[in-house]
Amino acid sequence: MRMLNPFRVLKMARSCCLVLVITLLLLLLGSCVALGWILARRVEAEGPKAHWTDVLLVIDQSRSLWELGGMGSDPHQHRMEAARLLITCLGLDDPWNQYRVGVILFGGEAELAVPLTDVALAEHRETLQRAISDPQPHSGTDLKEALTLVHNTLFPDDGLPSDRPVVILMTDGKPETGQTQGPEGRKAYLQELEELLRKLTMEGIALHVILLRSPATDVDKQIQGLYRPLWLRWAESIPHLQLHELEGEEEILALYHDLALQLHGTQGRGPAVKRQIAGSAELLPVNLTMPLRQVAFVIHKSDPELNIEIIQPDGLPLAAGPSVVHQMDVFRRTEVWSVAAPLPGLWWLRMEGQGQLTLWTDCWPAPPTPTTTPTSTSTPTASPMVTSTSIPTASPTLSTSATAISSPMPTAPPSPTATPTTTPTPQRIMSPRLSFLAPQQGSSYRRGEVVSVMLQLEATVNVLSEALVTAQLQPPRGTALPLSLTPSDGCHWVDQVGPLKESGLYTLLAHLETPASAGTILEAQAETHFRVISPSRSWVWLLTGAGGLSLLAGGAVWWIGSHRPPLRGILRLAKAPSGEELGQYWDLTRLSGRRASIGQGDGCPIRLTGDPRMPRQAATLIPCVQEGEMVAVLRKMAKEAEIRVNGQPLRGEHLLHDGDRIELGPYLLRYEDLAQRARRFHQGTPWRSKGDFR
Length: 694
Fold this sequence. Notes:
This protein is of the alpha+beta class. The chain has 11 helices and 35 strands. Strands 7, 8, 9, 10, 11, 12 and 13 form a 7-stranded antiparallel β-sheet that branches. Strands 3-2-1-4-5-6 form a 6-stranded mixed β-sheet, with helices on both faces. Helix 2 runs parallel beside helix 8 and helix 4 (143-154) runs parallel beside helix 5 (183-202). The longest helix has 40 residues, at 6-45. The radius of gyration is 42 Å and the shape is flat.
């Protein structure tokens, strides 16, 4: 009967266990991927998330832009003022977009003054603005090096590329380097510059090139005869490259504000309003006639001491709060007020001090809300009715500067002839329009938050006086809950619901009933939906998966280590320092553990204490199966230990065989393996060391 080789069986068992462990790890990895996919689908179902946009400001700091006897392109640093305005505007709380802004300053050399930084935090915006507050002039103008740094910043070799990159390059348009001195060098340089511009735009970069004009550039023959026509040709032939030519502070500030509007994907209400303040308090009206999701008042002041106060249509001054964000640049010259769901009506800006003020009003339109067309019944009247009303001023304290605006309502045309008899004449009545200003359609809130409700009614005055408005909240499960609406003025009702503890889709319903005339009832309805989401617990699942994977990997390592074959053989002491007994030996099969350390440390099973230079752990014996045969491996553990095997120095590991001699300092140890010796005897082969030195 053929005997099974126990070492081969052990090797096959270890291979099967290794395959099993790898299979379990793959299953766990697949479970983590499936869990991540499910969480991603849940996050996607919760609503749209904000998109990141990377904006890189590339600003020319060559000497031609500084004061050159009054001929510099931008001696007063309006380009830096405009950059601070853009950074402040991009810091607005936009639920659909988030921005990272970086700054590159260049002349003959380009430097990354500030890397791409999230501008949602005030301290990050302050860092950006301070970094460009005191620029220094550079000699030369190397546009190619600046754009190369742009590419390396947006598309790093050791990181992910930027998402939706935008580059705003401001220069006077004339490169001045050693490569542009001669005609041939200038031609080669411009060809490389054009190729670099095309490469950037083909990689998805929206490139805005701003050429600063001044009396110095207007009389420069190279700029007017070569570089300006070249930039115009590049703007026509290179996609996603927009060219802007500017002159003066007002044009620079206006362009940077327009670029911020483009990035936000919104629109402004006409051109900027400019006002010169002479010292006394002045009022500036701003009329918001339509419902808005958000409005931003962007104010630039020539003097930071100029005081601004914004007054709402209800007469209350605007103050920072949950729905109002107030931001200001580091030098207090740019001021931004962002208001969510602003009240329609007449707003006022109260200005006091001396200086010039520039105001932009940026609007985010509210999503359309479904309305129900009311029905009305015509009633006979003796004569046609004409209705008119006046919009009251924003506040009684502003009556000296505000003027009441009278807006007549649509009326029926007068009867061509008057008769003593009464004839039925249709009465024109404005249909009431009911809409939710808050919460907005499709908005999301976290579980446990309180939701503010604001309802708006647009109708004639006689309808508003007797309007009955009711509202209810329909949760994801259960019965509808009535709301206690409180009128804030003649056309707005407010309430708060919550804290909402149930996740899911909520529906707000509002209903209006009001008598228009005898026998006529007008109705209107409004509906909006919002979602309450649970706090994300994806980190719990990820930690659980990582912990399970770590436990499984640790268990596999422990199992493999615990099933490692034991050591075999005898280590006999053949030479030792004086005072130690020769002939003693260590039976490796009886040592506890599956490896044995050699040294003078307390934890070493084979202790050699006669040499003070002996390391605490000089070497280790480890079992190993090679070609179906059990062998012991001698591994060097201490670099300072002097170990020789059969006269050869040991640098790493050595496979021991019967009769191998181990020299460790003044000690000589001989390894004896009776099983190997018996196998050689039956095979008739003499002893020969087959040690493998590594």
